[in-house]
Amino acid sequence: MNSSASATADSALRAAWEDLAAKVRYHRQRYYNATPEITDAEFDALYRKLQNLEEEHPELRVPSSPTLEVGAPVEEGSGFPDLEHLEPMYSLDNVFSKDELEQWLIRTPSDSYSVELKIDGVSIDLVYRDGELVSAATRGDGRVGEEITANARMIAGIPDTLKKNETFPIPSVLEVRGEVYIAIEDFPLVNEQRQKENKKPFANPRNAAAGSMRQKDPQAVKKRRLTLVCHGVGVAEGITFESQSQAYEALVAFGLPVSEYTQVLHTHEEIHAMVEKWADHRHDAVFEMDGMVVKVDNREQQRALGATSRAPRWAIAYKYPPEEAVTKLLDIRVGVGRTGRVTPFAVMEPVTVAGSTVEMATLHNQSEVKRKGVLIGDDVVIRKAGEVIPEVLGPLADRRDGSERPFVFPTLCPMCGTRLAPAKEEDADWRCPNTQSCPGQLAGRLEYIAGRGVFDIEALGEKAAWDLVRTGILTDEAELFNLREEDLLNSRVYTNSKGAVNAAGKKLIEGLKSQRDTDLWRVLTGLSIRHVGPTAARALAQKFGSMEAIRSASEEELAATDGVGQIIADSITQWFGVEWHRHIVDSWAVSGVTMEEEQGEEQPQTLAGLTVVVTGSLENFTRDGAKEAIVSRGGKAAGSVSKKTDYVVVGANAGSKATKAEELGRPILNEQQFEELLETGTVATLL
């Protein structure tokens, strides 16, 4: 194309952008003034057309673009302040079988029920005063969440101003509950954008939504294609609703979206039929869903039924069984984690399970491979029950043709060649003893240090961690916080095509500087001491108040700490007994990393009155440590599952207790949810 033709094309694009931008501005103004000339859907289409044009031609976007007209961004590095909900934001009780659902319906009789799809997204709480959005918050612990108002303004379906209408008056206060999700068709586009930015793709839409809502820059939230669906109302002043369905009608009239799949049903048979229908059409919805929610429709009856400490009695969630699929086991390989644990994992032909494509699954350890009886080349059954990586249930042995071969566990570390240390009593894992120099372990530790639950350094992910190790920029984590821009010149990740430090490199250096000042428990967690996860680290930081005090404490003093116990105490003592470990702490201290913290209070009684059973092996808890963590927070650590059990925590190689929990319909938690339960006393979303 010659220069004249190119200029003409550019001029035409600019004219098209200006026309679209003018229309969006005009109709947005008419919308906020309650004098719309087009429907919401037509406006959305117009807005999307402008958005897509800017994405295809970023040079057209200017600071005054209507796609950038938002509130002030969150202050960099400030985090999110706490915000108390006007009314508690409860979770839902779950049932897992038709019989359990029927029993709930019998116990909760009503003339009508609102039945809707259970969206696998992230909960949000919106507050409107006199029709204006004044705050938005995450669920948090059900009472207090994180204030994310600036980010919420970037989410599709959340208007700044409620729409006036002839049917429902604008309330003086309206608290709206909803679910934020990424549509199934949009998820590949979100991951495509991340890959262009050299970032690791999200595992599933829910993870993407959860991470997106807590971005520090609202403009980054806008790129994630988040959408809201409302599913409830909290405090409402200046308006009353006779039913759940009427509340939904009002929300729609106000310009807030509700699920198009919701129905008001009157008989048990109708409810069971709808549950069965969606069991066969789970992937027909625009969003990922993992069950159905049944609510008493009458609001007066809802108030009469009330709620327990964690869930309303007038609603129940029916959870569909975990999905299973058959695929080919192509290979069994081993990986090395940050603690030296050598873990076999299955490499499979890609298969869709529970709405996401998977091609790897953990096999935990050598004993688990033998127990399952899988051979390389087998057709295997896999199950995904909420885990990021699915589980291999076992082989379809009758399909074997003789070409299959057994897996041979290596004797040498695949990352550094060191002879592996065999499994010990009460530890089924083989480990690489080359803790300091094994590149797999070091890269894993660096990535862990940068994680959101530790130092929260955004520019240091898996790929970057491996780059720092392979190029020799870091030989251990001691010098991490001493890195300078000139140290990154040999990096492939942190330099541009001209060999200069790129934006990611500058962001890394800035992040290392800004994140040095953090909580002591995060620093302790970042040391990757075996068995010391966030819960134990918090307890130690609260009791001892400084790294030096922890380092100098006797094994007996450490073991006496609530939520720690003898095994963790022994692990800490052994860790600080290694010279290069102490060098890490000393180097970080010189670099300005937090080493002291005011002594906190005793553990909050978040589990008061709750009975919790732990089964299987947990990564960050020993058996005694998990028990002490429960008891120290006022809970009862039971040894068997019964109908009186409130939660069952399931780790690797869980046995009959996990099966019993499923049979009795007891809530099942993974380790991450267990830590959430310990901290808040509630779990936002159950498996």
TrEMBL record:
Which cofactors must be present for this protein to function?
Mg(2+); Mn(2+)
GO terms of molecular function: DNA ligase (NAD+) activity; metal ion binding
Enzyme class (EC, first level): ligase
Q: What are the UniProt keywords, alphabetically?
A: DNA damage, DNA repair, DNA replication, Ligase, Magnesium, Manganese, Metal-binding, NAD, Zinc
- What is the catalytic activity of this protein? NAD(+) + (deoxyribonucleotide)n-3'-hydroxyl + 5'-phospho-(deoxyribonucleotide)m = (deoxyribonucleotide)n+m + AMP + beta-nicotinamide D-nucleotide
Active site as annotated? 118
Region Disordered: start-end pairs: 195-217
Q: Which residues does the annotation say bind NAD(+)?
A: 40-44, 91-92, 116, 139, 179, 295, 319
Q: Which residues bind Zn(2+)?
A: 413, 416, 432, 438
- Residues forming the BRCT domain are 602-687
What EC designation does it have? 6.5.1.2
Q: Which Pfam families match?
A: BRCT, DNA_ligase_aden, DNA_ligase_ZBD, HHH_2, OB_DNA_ligase
> Which one GO biological process term can you cite for this protein?
DNA replication
Q: Which SMART domains match?
A: BRCT, LIGANc
InterPro entries assigned to the protein according to its UniProt record, in alphabetical order: BRCT_dom, BRCT_dom_sf, DisA/LigA_HHH, DNA_ligase, DNA_ligase_AS, DNA_ligase_CS, DNAligase_adenylation, DNAligase_N
**Gene Ontology cellular component terms for the protein in this record:** cytosol
Q: List the NCBIfam families.
A: dnlj (TIGR00575), PRK07956.1 (NF005932)
Q: What family does this belong to?
A: Belongs to the NAD-dependent DNA ligase family. LigA subfamily.
Cite the HAMAP family for this sequence: DNA_ligase_A
The role this protein plays is: DNA ligase that catalyzes the formation of phosphodiester linkages between 5'-phosphoryl and 3'-hydroxyl groups in double-stranded DNA using NAD as a coenzyme and as the energy source for the reaction. It is essential for DNA replication and repair of damaged DNA.
Protein name (database record): DNA ligase
Q: Which organism is it from?
A: Corynebacterium pyruviciproducens
> Which classification does the entry list for the species?
Bacteria, Bacillati, Actinomycetota, Actinomycetes, Mycobacteriales
